[in-house]
Amino acid sequence: MRSSTAKASTIETLRHRLHSVIGTRTRIPIEVFPSAKAWDEHVASQSSNSQYGIRSALDGLTKWAIGAGVLRRAPPLPMPMGKKKRGKAMLRKDETRVFIRASLAAGDPLALAAVTMILTGIRPGEAVTLKVRDLDDGGALLWVAAEGGKTEAATRRIEVDEELQPHLVALAQGKDPNAFLFAFESQRRRKTLNNYKSRRDSLLRRVKALCLEANVPIVVAHSMRGLHATLATDAGITGHAVAANLGHTTFVVTARHYVAPATVATAASRRTRGALRAKTKTVTAVTRNASEFTRPKTKKRSWNFGTVKRRKWPSYLCEEGDSNPHGC
Asked: Cα dihedral sign for 221, 222, 227, 232?
């Protein structure tokens, strides 16, 4: 992968993964490199996800070497052990409330960054690179990845929760517009030239420390993003809205990597039951009011023309011997 088409963070990640398997064998040619032995020594003991990441980096290196003419064919590479896990361990709802209360009480920039991630769903890297000027409209709006992010959809505007707004406004008070919103002094012992990675690592360590302070299970900073997606989906927010808030182009990635299992199905089932209940109420209402459209029964009309005088028939109209019903 050429550096002109890859971001600095991507190059740093690939370098770290390749170094983890190469180790001290930096001068051995790639065509005779003992990949199986190096894998057993440095990679086999790592987690399944780390093994899959390193294998992906090796595949990319091999593909580049074949394209450049360094290798004629791909050498046999070790296979990762175990099944690749998707998503991160997340806090439960009550645990999240406890964590937020503890973080707001702490009030330091990294604690507020963690709360911001839960309530907005932004990435750890997006949180630590927010500028003061990205907090807009009196603290009600955040411009995320305004200068470009991981994907095209990463550049977005997100509303800030009312409870969080005063904390962020106080944090930005009196700072230079181009200064970091969550400014802090890094406690990293080992110096690094990658300031972006250093800031993300500091956020990770602070989140773990906050979990211990709040007496909740220890999670990583990136799990706050999945927590936001899960809570939003469970609350009935539509998939495309959740994906847009996380900076995804489609909900497929969001559901696969961030939303807790069965949450999508549960939310869909809840919406279906709600729709059916609404339909039942509508039908009942129409049935109840159907009598309004039925013509009411009316009493039989009686006509009254007053008293009719009996008329005497002339006697010449009646013949002798008749019963003379007319009384003549």
From this structure: positive
Calculate the CA 247 to chain-centre distance.
Answer: 9
pTM for the predicted model, two decimal places: 0.64
What whole-number distance in Å separates Cα of residue 328 and Cα of residue 316?
A: 9
Which pairing describes strands 156-159 and 135-136: parallel, antiparallel, or unpaired? Answer: unpaired
Q: Which position has the higher pLDDT, 57 or 243? A: 57
Closest CA to 326 of 312, 307, 308, 309: 312
Could you tell me if 144 and 235 are in contact, meaning their C-beta atoms sit under 8 angstroms apart? no
Nearest to 130 by CA among 208, 183, 204: 183
Other residues' Cβ atoms within 10 Å of the Cβ of residue 224: 29
Residue 56 and residue 77: Cα distance in Å, rounded?
11
Q: How many of the other CB atoms lie within 10 Å of CB of 232?
A: 21
Alpha-carbon torsion (103, 104, 110, 115), positive or negative: positive
DSSP string of 15-59, one letter each residue = HHHHHHHHTT-TTS-GGG--HHHHHHHHTTTS-HHHHHHHHHHHH
DSSP class of residue 135 equals E
Q: Which residue has tokens 């182009």?
A: 249
Tokens at residue 222, please? 């990136």
116-157 pLDDT, tens digit per residue, is: 988 888 888 889 999 999 999 999 988 987 776 666 667 888
Domains belonging to the chain, first-starting first, are 8-67 (no CATH), 93-220 (1.10.443.10)
Strand partners, 143: 157
